[in-house]
Design brief:
Layout: E1 3-8, H1 12-21, E2 31-36, E3 50-54, H2 60-69, E4 72-77, H3 80-83, E5 92-96, E6 117-119, H4 133-150, H5 160-170, H6 177-190, H7 192-214, E7 218-224, E8 229-237, H8 242-252, E9 259-264, E10 269-274, H9 282-288, E11 292-293, E12 297-302, H10 304-312, E13 316-317
Parallel strand pairs: 1-2, 1-3, 3-4, 4-5, 8-9
Antiparallel strand pairs: 5-6, 7-8, 7-13, 9-10, 10-12, 11-12
Helix pairs in contact: 1-4, 1-6, 5-7, 7-8
């Protein structure tokens, strides 16, 4: 087997990246797909010659272990926090914040160095040698689906409304490789116009539910110790419709630099920070708290006691 393919599990982007790789005929039966999840220890599964980490960057300790276990370790990412890290020597990295996570699975990526692209010296995309002309024809046919799947991740304002409708429609599918496969089959059967029509209706219903979650928001103080700054921002707890709840909060609290949505998990709380208005960089805040992400959407983990402390002395409740 050629590659152990580590991707962001439970994520539409990461699962779509894996689905794209499944289209490469020369890699059939040559790729072992390994989902990775935030808050769950990264498990190195050595079943292939090389390892690829895509749309997810594990800790340096994990990468160092991978370097010992594999002939080559490739890392493809687009998160802002990935640009700020120092990677162990020997990792073949391609960091490109111009594209969505799933688009990093495409070969022949333009790797010209710029502020938006950082690569290891002599970098070559791991899939360059395996993609055939028929594969490229399949990818071309998939392009409308992938574009809608990735539009929000690329912060494509022109595709913004279509992206929202599409992601609302996609919520009926699991964010797994099989779920993406089923979604693409349905997209092909229904056509883009019908999918977006259904998605618009779904989104209206979803936003009504998200609005109910947002009503529980309280204003808390978040301290960024490294920068010596404190911010008063709205926080609410939501177990689903996370990004939709954040949109509602952003619309209601336009003066806040960012909004927070806390999602309780089994052993920790996932904190998501989102910017709807202004230019605040939440990736820097998230990195200072042990997390990371994009400039306008990032996150980190905290304990349940940390969350309770935040809620003990809220500044106000709207």
């Amino acid at each position: 087997m050629l590659f152990d393919f580590y991707y962001h599990g439970g994520c539409p982007d990461g699962s779509t990246a894996a689905f794209i790789v499944q289209q490469y005929s020369k890699l059939k039966n040559e790729v072992n797909y390994v989902p990775l999840y935030h808050g769950v220890a990264t498990r190195i599964v050595v079943a292939a010659k090389d390892a690829i980490f895509i749309d997810y960057h594990p800790g340096n300790e994990t990468l160092s272990s991978a370097l010992e276990a594999y002939e080559n370790v490739y890392l493809l990412d687009h998160h802002k926090s990935a640009f700020e890290r120092r990677w162990p020597e020997g990792v073949h990295a391609l960091l490109d914040d111009r594209v969505a996570g799933c688009e990093l699975a495409y070969p022949n990526v333009d790797v010209q160095h710029s502020e938006h692209v950082v690569t290891s010296q002599g970098y070559k995309h791991p899939f360059d040698a395996y993609v055939t002309l028929p594969d490229m024809k399949k990818l071309h046919k998939m392009a409308p689906f992938v574009k809608l799947m990735s539009a929000g991740d690329r912060f494509d304002r022109k595709s913004g409304l279509d992206f929202v409708s599409f992601r609302a429609w996609f919520k009926q599918f699991e964010p797994t490789i099989e779920g993406v496969k089923d979604a693409y089959a349905a997209f092909t059967r229904l056509g883009e116009k019908e999918v977006l029509k259904q998605g618009k209706v779904f989104n209206e219903l979803i936003m009504q539910v998200a609005a109910q979650s947002a009503k529980s928001a309280v204003i808390i103080t978040v301290v960024e110790e490294a920068a010596g700054k404190a911010y008063e921002v709205p926080l609410c707890i939501a177990t689903n419709l996370i990004s939709e709840t954040a949109v509602v909060l952003g619309n209601e609290y336009k003066e806040a630099p960012f909004v927070l949505v806390a999602t309780p998990k089994k052993d920790f709380v996932s904190m998501g920070a989102y910017v709807s208005n202004g230019n605040f960089d939440v990736s820097a805040l998230a990195s200072s708290l042990g997390g990371g992400g994009h400039r306008s959407a990032a996150g980190w983990q905290c304990t349940f006691s940390d969350l309770m402390k935040m809620l003990e002395k809220p500044v106000a409740k709207k």
